[in-house]
Amino acid sequence: MPRLSFGSWVEDAVDWLQSNLTWIFDFIKTVLGGMYDGVNAVLGGGEPLLMAGIFAVIAFWLRGVIPAVATFVGFALIDSLALWDEAMATLSLVVVAAVITIVIAVPTGIWAARNSRVSSALRPVLDVMQTMPAFVYLIPGVMFFGVGVTPGVIATIVFAMPPGVRMTELGIRQVDSELVEAAEAFGTSPKHTLTRVQLPLALPTIMAGINQVIMLALSMVVIGGMAGAGGLGEKVYAAITQLQVGLAAESGIAVVILAMYLDRMTGALNERVSPLGRRAAAKVAAGARRLKFTHYKPGTAVAMTGVVVLALVAGGLNIAGSSDAKGSQADASDVGQGQKINMGYIPWDEGIASTFLWKEILEQRGYETGITQLDAGPLYSGVARGDIDFQTDSWLPTTHKDYWDKYSDQLDDMGAWYGPTSLELTVPSYVKGIDSLEDLKGQGKKFDGKIIGIESSAGMMGTLNKKVLKEYGLEGEYKVVSSSTSSMLAELNASIKKKEPVVVTLWSPHWAYGKHDLKKLKDPKGAWGKGEEVHTVAHKGFAKKAPAVAKWLKDFKLSEEQLTSLENEIQNAGQGKEQDGVRAWLKKNDGLVDKLAPVPGGAGGSQQGKDAGKTVNMGYFPWDEAIASTYLWQNMLEDRGYRTTVKQLDPGPLYTGLAQGQLDVQFDSWLPTTHKDYWDRYKDNLTDLGSWYGPTSLELSVPSYVKGIDSLEDLKGQGKKFKGKIIGIESSAGMMGTLNKKVLKEYGLEGEYKVVSSSTSSMLAELNRSIKKKEPVVVTLWSPHWAYGKHDLKKLEDPKGAWGEGEQIHTVAKKDFAKDFPELTGWLKDFKLSEAQLASLEVELQKGGAGKEKESARRWMNANPDVVAKLAPVS
Fold first, then answer.
1. Cα 144 to chain center, whole Å?
2. In this predicted structure, what is the pLDDT of residue 604?
3. What is the pLDDT of residue 362?
4. Quick one: DSSP state of residue 46?
5. 35: Cβ contacts below 8 Å, ≥ 6 apart
6. How high is the pLDDT of residue 833?
7. What is the pLDDT of residue 529?
8. Whole-angstrom distance between the N-terminal and C-terminal Cα of the chain?
């Protein structure tokens, strides 16, 4: 039989869908994510015990006193296990998935019951949906929707759909045909026959189907934890992969409590909504002779009142708690300002350690964080899609080569933070005579012919099977047992306790070398290859989303001693307390947070200056570089303990204010030309603290897509391309006179081009409009200007020097400034910004908009965390 490439066809179809229907998947993701967030905000937003009370009232209404008490105890137990948030997240997933499934399944079942052709067509589809391994549904979910809630919900809907459809169809088909015929004989329309005869009688069967939908949804939502769906599923998955028996038991109990509650409540709901169910319940209550109160169920109005009262109390407490949280957060660093950063990790020790380390650091820096544990495949996929911002455990260039090759176009390598690593086979030290990989040959019986490995997807497993065993002639004698890292460590631990020989896959660094007395088997043939580096990998665009964090990650480094001690601290803290272990480790490494994540207000940023408390009065006129430099220094001076005032003035009043001592300093004196008149008039009462930027330049500029125009000489004969126009600024500006009187004449452009006088803002608007349409345009510009940071532009060369020489931008202060502010004088004399720095600062201010210049400058400082220490150093 020829090989049927069914799998490759499916992959081609998936690739096509990903390339052409992304907008549909994004829409579905937004809708489902919004539904989940809304439900989770309701279920997870209240005080746990009050929410448990609400669930108990619902149980009281549906089943009676004893189930209500059991419900409250069960949910209180979940809260005492510190799993409330996870349980509510899981319940939210179940509710969203079940509601969508029921809305689709019940009408589909009705359609199948009333149309045999539809029923025949649906049956094989439902068979596939119901019998396909549940894990398979996660693969397209992750590929189309990324990791998170949506793939879990989608997979759950598909998996839970069949019983809802089948039971609805079955219930309607089982309604006595004579009753249906009687209804039709009395002239009942098909619509009313369905709603008044078939559905009421089929309701018990339909409710049983809904019950199965909900239970299957719960089972699938737990599996969805593998795709980052969160909730109890993530806890169970973490317990499995890390072999945490305690966490598995606690999470399992929470799942059982949810399952029992949902099963009993949906089963009892039939008694409330079905006439047959109400009749059966009434008979049971009437026949009860003892403990009649246990059969009492409050009316709907009474139960609803109880739920509403508890909900209002829970909501009120939640609002109060939110206010308190906001108040306490105001004292924290404002660097992240609550920005959400999502991290993912593979359950390898260095991944866990570094991820929870950064979780703690980022939260100390004012960020909100999310953490998801995933296998390597979904993790790289999630980072590539942007669902996860970064992960810190990429072993390159070998172990994760396949993932990097597949997703490298969508990823940014933030650099290595640890290395070189090493891969090895390891045995306990009591195993004598086995010191090298060569010594393993002929010793297979001693180890039961097994090498205990880790996850089969790990790159080192491929290297072991394809290269190491072959290089040392171990094929056939040894079988590599794929398991998980936690299972491998459990086998190692069990063997050591029994003093049994065992050979396992390990790597350095690893805490196991600190816990056990182990031997790394030498690799004289170099089959394992060279050591790797552990890299941090982020999605494309992360540096733009969180520039400060991106810079910290690029500079992130840990030594082997630091990493090993961190891993051991986390091991000592125990399961579920990784962040507590990180905090304990950071206490022993005082100052490390400021070193790893330096910010204004962090290391070197919160120190008070020698003249702290003095007031510095600054002025500026509304030129972009003046606004940028002034608000930059306002932030830096306040970080150093100075007080500041800022005033906007025209150049004349500004220079006059400085000369009279009413202002202390300004940062935008263009010398020796532009502001020559002001300098000549007031120089006896001013102090020049030196230039911080230069040389400046005047120029004509075109977008980079305009080919063949690189110099002012190239403009000649190309007037039609630009419609004979050069877009200028205010006619009173000095550069406009130079352009009209000198530049056009020097390059023979008179008559061919007309200089359009407008305003700076109009010129920039025309530039922006032309770039959006990819149209040729030539405009007057100057350096520095934020437009060079925002757009890809070419400065037209001026080989004849028609524009003249560039100027320097100086800081100019009042005459006695050095006497009044000796420390600040030293800082300002050394003040320098590069063109790239100034352009990026101006762009940040443009993004922030008018009135938010100070906040925008602060954001730029956060993205350049060492700027305060460099520009305003305090010994």
1. 17
2. 44
3. 92
4. S
5. 96
6. 93
7. 86
8. 80
pLDDT at 603: 43
DSSP state of 753: B
CB atoms < 10 A from the CB of 2, how many? Answer: 4
Rounded Cα–Cα distance for residues 644 and 398 (Å): 54
Nearest-angstrom CA–CA distance, 386 and 380:
10
C-alpha span between 295 and 277 (Å, rounded):
15
Closest to 32 measured CA to CA, from 88, 85, 95: 95
Q: What is the pTM of this model?
A: 0.57
Residue type, 105: A
Assess contact for 426 and 521: CB atoms under 8 A: yes
Task: List, in sequence order, every residue forming a beta bridge with 711; answer none if it has no partner.
Answer: 797
Six-digit token string for 76? 């209180």
- The partner residues of 703 in beta bridges, in order of sequence, read 793
Number of helices (H), then strands (E), belonging to the chain: the values are 39, 20
What's the confidence (pLDDT) of residue 325?
A: 40
* Residues facing 648 on adjacent strands: 620
Residue ranges for the chain with pLDDT beneath 50: 321-333, 601-605
Question: DSSP letters along 653-700, please?
Answer: HHHHHHHTTSS-EEEEEEETTTTHHHHHHHGGGEEEEEEEE---EEEE
Neighbours of 651 (CB within 10 A): 19
Q: Determine the Cα–Cα distance for residues 433 and 389; give it in Å rounded to an integer.
A: 47
For residues 386 and 538, give the distance between their C-alpha atoms in angstroms, rounded to a whole number: 8
Could you read off the pLDDT of 362-371 as tens digits, one per residue?
988 888 999 8
Whole-number Cα distances in Å, 234 to 160, 222, 253, 349, 363: 20, 7, 14, 17, 21
In this structure, what are the phi and psi dihedrals at residue 701, rounded to the nearest 5 degrees? -135, 150
Nearest-5° Cα angle at 724, 719 to 730? 130
